[in-house]
Amino acid sequence: MVKCLSQLVGWRTLVRAVSTLAFGLFLTLQFWVFTPTPAGATGVYSMPNVAVGEPTWVIDQAETMSRVTRNQISGELGKLAKQTGAEVRFVTIHRLDYGETIENFAQKLFQKWFPTPEDQANQVLLVLDNVTNTIAVQTGDGVKALLSDQMAESVAQETMMVPLRDGNKYNQAFLDASERLVAVLSGQPDPGPPVVDDTVQTEGTFARAEETDDRSATIVVVVLLVLATVIPMATYYLYQAIQS
Fold first, then answer.
1. Domain TPM spans what residues (predicted)?
2. How many other C-beta atoms are found inside a 10 Å radius of the C-beta of residue 214?
3. Which 8-state DSSP code applies to residue 116?
4. How far apart are CA 115 and CA 126, in angstroms?
Protein backbone atom coordinates (compact mmCIF):
# COMPACT_ATOMS: atom_id res chain seq x y z
CA MET A 1 0.00 0.00 0.00
CA VAL A 2 2.78 2.41 0.92
CA LYS A 3 4.63 1.47 -2.22
CA CYS A 4 1.57 2.22 -4.36
CA LEU A 5 1.11 5.60 -2.70
CA SER A 6 4.77 6.42 -3.32
CA GLN A 7 4.43 5.52 -6.98
CA LEU A 8 1.25 7.60 -7.26
CA VAL A 9 2.95 10.63 -5.70
CA GLY A 10 5.92 10.11 -7.99
CA TRP A 11 3.72 10.03 -11.07
CA ARG A 12 1.89 13.15 -9.95
CA THR A 13 5.18 14.95 -9.45
CA LEU A 14 6.37 13.86 -12.89
CA VAL A 15 3.13 14.94 -14.58
CA ARG A 16 3.29 18.32 -12.82
CA ALA A 17 6.92 18.83 -13.87
CA VAL A 18 6.23 17.89 -17.49
CA SER A 19 3.15 20.17 -17.59
CA THR A 20 5.12 23.08 -16.15
CA LEU A 21 7.91 22.55 -18.66
CA ALA A 22 5.46 22.37 -21.58
CA PHE A 23 3.71 25.54 -20.44
CA GLY A 24 7.04 27.33 -20.11
CA LEU A 25 8.04 26.30 -23.62
CA PHE A 26 4.67 27.51 -24.92
CA LEU A 27 5.14 30.95 -23.34
CA THR A 28 8.69 31.16 -24.70
CA LEU A 29 7.48 30.33 -28.21
CA GLN A 30 4.74 32.95 -27.96
CA PHE A 31 7.30 35.55 -26.88
CA TRP A 32 9.73 34.88 -29.73
CA VAL A 33 7.06 34.63 -32.41
CA PHE A 34 4.90 37.61 -31.52
CA THR A 35 7.32 40.06 -29.90
CA PRO A 36 8.78 42.52 -32.47
CA THR A 37 12.48 43.27 -32.28
CA PRO A 38 14.38 46.32 -33.44
CA ALA A 39 17.10 44.20 -35.02
CA GLY A 40 18.33 45.59 -38.31
CA ALA A 41 17.08 49.12 -37.71
CA THR A 42 18.97 51.74 -39.71
CA GLY A 43 20.14 55.08 -38.34
CA VAL A 44 21.46 58.00 -40.36
CA TYR A 45 24.95 57.72 -38.91
CA SER A 46 25.20 54.06 -39.87
CA MET A 47 24.96 55.06 -43.53
CA PRO A 48 28.14 55.38 -45.62
CA ASN A 49 29.40 58.86 -46.42
CA VAL A 50 28.72 60.37 -49.84
CA ALA A 51 30.06 63.67 -51.16
CA VAL A 52 29.14 65.97 -54.03
CA GLY A 53 30.40 64.60 -57.33
CA GLU A 54 30.99 61.11 -55.96
CA PRO A 55 29.64 58.54 -58.44
CA THR A 56 27.60 56.62 -55.88
CA TRP A 57 24.08 56.70 -57.24
CA VAL A 58 22.42 53.67 -55.66
CA ILE A 59 22.80 52.42 -52.08
CA ASP A 60 20.53 49.39 -51.82
CA GLN A 61 20.98 48.31 -48.21
CA ALA A 62 17.58 46.60 -48.19
CA GLU A 63 18.61 44.57 -51.26
CA THR A 64 15.42 45.35 -53.15
CA MET A 65 16.97 45.63 -56.62
CA SER A 66 18.72 43.18 -58.87
CA ARG A 67 22.31 43.82 -59.93
CA VAL A 68 21.14 44.51 -63.47
CA THR A 69 18.71 47.16 -62.24
CA ARG A 70 21.33 48.82 -60.02
CA ASN A 71 23.81 48.94 -62.87
CA GLN A 72 21.26 50.32 -65.33
CA ILE A 73 20.10 53.04 -62.95
CA SER A 74 23.67 53.95 -61.99
CA GLY A 75 24.56 54.34 -65.66
CA GLU A 76 21.57 56.60 -66.36
CA LEU A 77 22.11 58.76 -63.27
CA GLY A 78 25.84 59.03 -63.94
CA LYS A 79 25.16 60.23 -67.47
CA LEU A 80 22.61 62.72 -66.13
CA ALA A 81 25.15 64.14 -63.67
CA LYS A 82 27.75 64.65 -66.42
CA GLN A 83 25.32 66.31 -68.81
CA THR A 84 23.37 68.53 -66.41
CA GLY A 85 25.19 68.63 -63.07
CA ALA A 86 22.07 67.31 -61.32
CA GLU A 87 22.90 64.40 -59.02
CA VAL A 88 20.17 61.89 -58.14
CA ARG A 89 20.71 59.18 -55.55
CA PHE A 90 18.48 56.28 -54.57
CA VAL A 91 18.76 54.77 -51.09
CA THR A 92 16.91 51.80 -49.64
CA ILE A 93 16.94 50.79 -45.99
CA HIS A 94 15.45 47.92 -44.04
CA ARG A 95 13.61 49.20 -40.98
CA LEU A 96 13.82 52.65 -39.43
CA ASP A 97 14.93 53.35 -35.88
CA TYR A 98 12.12 53.40 -33.32
CA GLY A 99 10.15 56.64 -33.54
CA GLU A 100 11.83 57.71 -36.79
CA THR A 101 9.89 58.60 -39.93
CA ILE A 102 11.06 58.22 -43.50
CA GLU A 103 10.77 61.98 -44.01
CA ASN A 104 13.00 62.77 -41.01
CA PHE A 105 15.48 60.10 -42.03
CA ALA A 106 15.74 61.46 -45.59
CA GLN A 107 16.15 65.02 -44.34
CA LYS A 108 18.89 64.07 -41.87
CA LEU A 109 20.73 61.99 -44.47
CA PHE A 110 20.49 64.83 -46.99
CA GLN A 111 22.02 67.24 -44.47
CA LYS A 112 24.70 64.75 -43.47
CA TRP A 113 25.85 64.18 -47.02
CA PHE A 114 25.40 67.76 -48.20
CA PRO A 115 25.78 70.07 -45.17
CA THR A 116 25.85 73.43 -46.98
CA PRO A 117 23.32 75.09 -49.33
CA GLU A 118 25.96 75.03 -52.06
CA ASP A 119 26.40 71.28 -51.67
CA GLN A 120 22.64 70.69 -51.62
CA ALA A 121 21.81 72.85 -54.64
CA ASN A 122 21.88 70.24 -57.41
CA GLN A 123 21.05 67.19 -55.31
CA VAL A 124 18.05 64.85 -55.35
CA LEU A 125 17.80 62.14 -52.70
CA LEU A 126 15.09 59.48 -52.74
CA VAL A 127 14.88 57.08 -49.78
CA LEU A 128 12.70 53.98 -49.39
CA ASP A 129 12.11 51.82 -46.32
CA ASN A 130 11.13 48.37 -47.60
CA VAL A 131 9.48 47.29 -44.33
CA THR A 132 6.75 49.94 -44.62
CA ASN A 133 7.22 50.81 -48.31
CA THR A 134 7.30 54.48 -47.40
CA ILE A 135 9.27 56.90 -49.57
CA ALA A 136 10.63 60.40 -49.08
CA VAL A 137 12.40 62.80 -51.46
CA GLN A 138 14.77 65.67 -50.68
CA THR A 139 15.78 68.20 -53.34
CA GLY A 140 18.14 71.17 -53.49
CA ASP A 141 17.18 74.65 -54.58
CA GLY A 142 19.16 74.35 -57.82
CA VAL A 143 16.89 71.64 -59.28
CA LYS A 144 13.52 73.00 -58.15
CA ALA A 145 13.09 75.04 -61.34
CA LEU A 146 12.80 71.74 -63.23
CA LEU A 147 11.74 69.39 -60.43
CA SER A 148 9.16 71.09 -58.25
CA ASP A 149 8.33 69.76 -54.80
CA GLN A 150 4.94 68.66 -56.09
CA MET A 151 6.53 66.74 -58.97
CA ALA A 152 9.11 65.13 -56.65
CA GLU A 153 6.28 64.00 -54.38
CA SER A 154 4.48 62.57 -57.40
CA VAL A 155 7.56 60.55 -58.32
CA ALA A 156 7.61 59.05 -54.82
CA GLN A 157 3.92 58.54 -54.19
CA GLU A 158 2.65 57.79 -57.70
CA THR A 159 5.43 56.68 -60.05
CA MET A 160 6.95 54.34 -57.46
CA MET A 161 3.89 53.31 -55.49
CA VAL A 162 2.00 51.87 -58.46
CA PRO A 163 4.53 49.02 -59.02
CA LEU A 164 4.95 48.56 -55.26
CA ARG A 165 1.23 48.09 -54.74
CA ASP A 166 1.26 45.60 -57.60
CA GLY A 167 3.26 42.97 -55.74
CA ASN A 168 6.28 44.91 -54.41
CA LYS A 169 7.89 45.30 -57.83
CA TYR A 170 10.93 47.22 -56.59
CA ASN A 171 12.96 46.92 -59.77
CA GLN A 172 10.15 48.40 -61.84
CA ALA A 173 9.49 51.12 -59.27
CA PHE A 174 13.07 52.38 -59.30
CA LEU A 175 13.44 52.05 -63.05
CA ASP A 176 10.28 54.09 -63.58
CA ALA A 177 11.41 56.72 -61.05
CA SER A 178 14.84 56.95 -62.68
CA GLU A 179 13.35 57.34 -66.14
CA ARG A 180 11.00 60.12 -65.03
CA LEU A 181 13.63 62.01 -63.03
CA VAL A 182 16.17 61.82 -65.84
CA ALA A 183 13.63 63.16 -68.33
CA VAL A 184 12.55 66.06 -66.13
CA LEU A 185 16.05 67.07 -65.02
CA SER A 186 17.25 66.92 -68.62
CA GLY A 187 14.68 69.56 -69.56
CA GLN A 188 12.36 67.15 -71.35
CA PRO A 189 8.58 67.09 -70.81
CA ASP A 190 7.43 65.28 -67.70
CA PRO A 191 6.14 61.84 -68.75
CA GLY A 192 3.96 61.86 -65.64
CA PRO A 193 3.02 58.98 -63.34
CA PRO A 194 1.87 55.64 -64.75
CA VAL A 195 -1.74 55.30 -65.75
CA VAL A 196 -3.67 53.12 -63.33
CA ASP A 197 -6.40 50.89 -64.73
CA ASP A 198 -9.42 51.46 -62.50
CA THR A 199 -11.69 49.15 -64.48
CA VAL A 200 -14.18 47.55 -62.12
CA GLN A 201 -14.84 43.87 -62.66
CA THR A 202 -18.60 43.28 -62.56
CA GLU A 203 -18.59 39.54 -63.22
CA GLY A 204 -17.97 36.84 -60.73
CA THR A 205 -19.20 38.71 -57.66
CA PHE A 206 -20.43 35.50 -56.04
CA ALA A 207 -18.08 32.92 -54.62
CA ARG A 208 -17.75 29.71 -56.58
CA ALA A 209 -18.37 26.37 -54.92
CA GLU A 210 -14.63 25.67 -54.91
CA GLU A 211 -13.94 28.99 -53.12
CA THR A 212 -16.65 28.23 -50.56
CA ASP A 213 -15.14 24.82 -49.90
CA ASP A 214 -11.68 26.36 -49.49
CA ARG A 215 -13.02 28.91 -47.01
CA SER A 216 -14.81 26.20 -45.02
CA ALA A 217 -11.64 24.14 -44.91
CA THR A 218 -9.67 27.18 -43.74
CA ILE A 219 -12.16 27.86 -40.96
CA VAL A 220 -11.96 24.24 -39.79
CA VAL A 221 -8.16 24.37 -39.71
CA VAL A 222 -8.19 27.63 -37.73
CA VAL A 223 -10.68 26.22 -35.22
CA LEU A 224 -8.59 23.08 -34.76
CA LEU A 225 -5.45 25.15 -34.20
CA VAL A 226 -7.22 27.28 -31.59
CA LEU A 227 -8.53 24.19 -29.82
CA ALA A 228 -5.07 22.61 -29.91
CA THR A 229 -3.75 25.68 -28.08
CA VAL A 230 -6.60 26.33 -25.65
CA ILE A 231 -7.38 22.78 -24.52
CA PRO A 232 -3.87 21.97 -23.17
CA MET A 233 -3.77 25.29 -21.32
CA ALA A 234 -7.27 24.79 -19.85
CA THR A 235 -6.33 21.24 -18.83
CA TYR A 236 -3.22 22.52 -17.09
CA TYR A 237 -5.08 25.17 -15.10
CA LEU A 238 -7.83 22.67 -14.17
CA TYR A 239 -5.20 20.22 -13.00
CA GLN A 240 -3.55 22.94 -10.91
CA ALA A 241 -6.91 23.84 -9.36
CA ILE A 242 -7.60 20.23 -8.43
CA GLN A 243 -4.16 19.78 -6.92
CA SER A 244 -4.32 22.96 -4.81
1. 58-183
2. 12
3. S
4. 17
Does the reported pTM lie above 0.90? no
205-206-212-215 Cα dihedral, nearest 10 degrees: 40
Model pLDDT for residues 60-76, shown as the tens digit of each residue: 999 999 999 999 999 99
Q: What is the CATH number of the domain that holds 114?
A: 3.10.310.50
pLDDT of residue 36: 43
Q: Which residues pair with 123 in a beta bridge?
A: 87
Q: 176 CB contacts (<8 Å, ≥6 apart)?
A: 159, 160, 162, 163, 194
User: Number of folded domains in the chain?
Assistant: 1
Q: Exposure of 194 by Cβ count < 10 A (0-12 exposed, 13-18 middle, 19+ buried)?
A: middle
Print the domain residue range for 139.
44-185
Q: Is the pLDDT higher at 85 or at 23? A: 85
